[in-house]
Structure formats: C-alpha cells, structure tokens
Design a protein that fits this description.
By secondary structure, the chain is an alpha+beta fold. The chain has 2 domains: 185 residues, Regulatory protein AraC (Jelly Rolls), CATH 2.60.120; 104 residues, Arc Repressor Mutant, subunit A, CATH 1.10.10. It is 49% helix and 18% strand. It is built from 13 helices and 11 strands. The strands form 2 sheets. A 6-stranded antiparallel sheet has the order 2-3-10-5-8-11, with helices on both faces. Helix 7 packs across helix 8 and helix 8 packs across helix 9. The two termini are 30 Å apart.
C-alpha cells in the first residue's frame, strides 16, 4: 500500500479476517450477510466498534440485500437500502456502513480488479464507459422477487464453485459463472432504465478528478491550493463546485479523508501515534492530536483505547 493512498482493503485481507473457504485465490470472495452484519464486522477490525465502517476495497463489491435495511455511504453520499436491492460499489471508492442492523440477510461478493480485467468484454471503451458512468450515479437497483431469485441462485452457484478447489478448470468455471452473472445484471439494469449515452457535466468531471487526486495525495497534501493547482482552477472555484455538488467545501473533504485515514491507522497494531502523525504528514504529533480532537472530540490515544 502506498503511503499516499487512503487505506485500500485487498481481498487477501478480507479472506484472512473472515477465514472461510468461499473464495478463489485473492480474486474473489463471497460471504453471507446475516444478523448484525457479520461480514462487515469481520472486515472492519481496524475501526472502533461504534464508528462507521470506512474502507476502500480493491475490487468491485456487489451487495444483494434480501432482508432488512441498512444505510451505506459511497464517496460520502448516503444510500438507504432495503430488502430486494442490489448495490454496486465500484473499485477504490470510499465505503462507509452507517449502522450495523440486527436483522439483515443477503450475500456480498467482492471481485478483484485483476479478475474483472480478465473477463471477456464486449468492447473496451463505449459500452464499459457508459456502464461505469451509469453505476457511478445509480449504484442501487430495486429488484423483483424473480430477479432476486435469479441473482441469489447465481451467487450461490459461484459460492459453491469457489469451494470446489479440486476442479480441474476451477478458474475458468468461476469466470464463466461471473460472465453469466454480469449479463443477468446488464439485463436487469437495462430493462429498468432507459440508458442512453450521456456525459458527466464539467462540474461532475471536476468532482471526479478531485476525488482521484485526493485518494492519491490526501496523506501528504492537505492544502486546497495543491488540488486546485493540479486541476488548473482556482481554490475558490474548486470549493464552490464541491459545495454545490456535495454540500461540503474542499477543506471539509480533505479533513474528513484525513480523519477516516487516521482512525484506521490508529487501529493498526504496533503503530504508534507518532508514526500515524508522520504517515499523515503532520508537522508534529501535537498538531495531529489537536486536529484529531477538533474533529472527533477525542485524543488519538482515547480513540485507540475505544473511549467515546
């Protein structure tokens, strides 16, 4: 993991934390969502128990919710989900689970970017770009009972095939089922939405560009002028665009990103507060401590001990 990146969870880490056989190499993992959102708890050991789960996953995450309700934030935008919903989280985007429901059922699948890149593609640009932009704006899909049944069956088939380690064509069989799954997903999405080619607005393009820069540089660069300079716009205009689209200024975004990063790093075993301060490029530990307490109401040491 590069020191300049926000924490990025790889599938190998998910496998190690969950510890089950429903996975293929470090490219695919499937887990049941049951009461108390067990899959999320297992993947979030870096975080305080009462804090929202905040991670970036190095792959495509599909959540098939069949029972219960949950609120999920993607890139700080809130999405309330209910039963019979399919939710997409595209690679590298920030995921926060706002609560841990007591009555939740479904399945979650995470597919690595490497495996995605090796699946057959209709074409390299137009079709895939259109789908990406659409899912970026519309990550949740309400499903009929029949659609839930079809997708649940495919999730189960892929899960069982992942267990069949002795299969002579293990990888090829899984890829074939994933290809089938993606065509079912396309069929559902295209039938429900009149998808026609569209482009992001100029302000949306700037927002997307800012997110990419922030993901890459947030640990080492904390100033609005750095990001505005990289984007060839003024700091005032950047803040105005972000405020209009998200309700948050550039400083709000940078501070929130640093706090998310700090919380996860503080839960990393054997890492001192000084090391966290250094990794986040604060001038000294005292400055980092004041920043952290201002935004959380706790000192880094208090947060690490789990005090609220």
């Amino acid at each position: 993991m590069k020191s300049a990146d926000l924490p990025l969870i790889d599938i190998i880490q998910i496998n190690e934390n969950i510890g089950h056989p429903h996975s293929f190499s470090n490219d695919l993992v499937i887990e049941l969502l049951q009461t108390k959102f067990k899959a999320a708890d297992n993947c979030a050991e870096y975080l305080a128990e009462d804090a929202p789960m905040s991670v970036r996953i190095n792959g495509l995450c599909l959540i098939l919710l069949t029972k219960g309700e949950v609120t999920i934030n993607v890139d700080y935008l809130k999405f309330p989900l209910q039963a019979n919903t399919l939710f997409f989280i595209l690679p590298d985007h920030i995921l926060e689970v706002q609560c841990r429901p007591e009555d939740l059922e479904g399945k979650i699948m995470v597919i690595s970017k490497d495996m995605l890149s090796n699946l057959p593609k209709k074409n390299e640009d137009g079709d895939n770009s259109l789908q990406y932009m659409f899912l970026r704006k519309n990550p949740s899909v309400e499903l009929t009972d029949e659609e839930v049944s079809v997708l649940d069956t495919l999730f189960t088939l892929i899960r069982k095939r992942a267990e069949a380690k002795e299969h002579l064509f293990h990888k090829e069989a899984i890829q074939s089922l994933l290809y089938h799954l993606f065509f079912e997903l396309k069929n559902i999405i295209f039938k429900k939405n009149d998808i026609v080619p569209f482009e992001l607005s100029r302000k949306e393009e700037l927002f997307q560009q800012f997110l990419k820069l922030m993901f890459k540089h947030s640990r080492e660069e904390h100033s609005v002028s750095f990001y505005a300079g990289k984007m060839c716009i003024t700091p005032q205009y950047l803040s105005a665009v972000l405020k209009e689209l998200t309700g948050k200024t550039t400083n709000n975004w940078i501070d929130h990103s640093l706090i998310l990063d700090a919380k996860i790093l503080l839960k990393t075993p054997n890492m001192t507060v000084q090391q966290v301060s250094d990794m986040l490029n604060f001038s000294n530990q005292s400055t980092f401590g004041k920043f952290f307490k201002k935004h959380t109401g706790q000192s880094p040491a208090e947060f690490r001990k789990g005090k609220q």
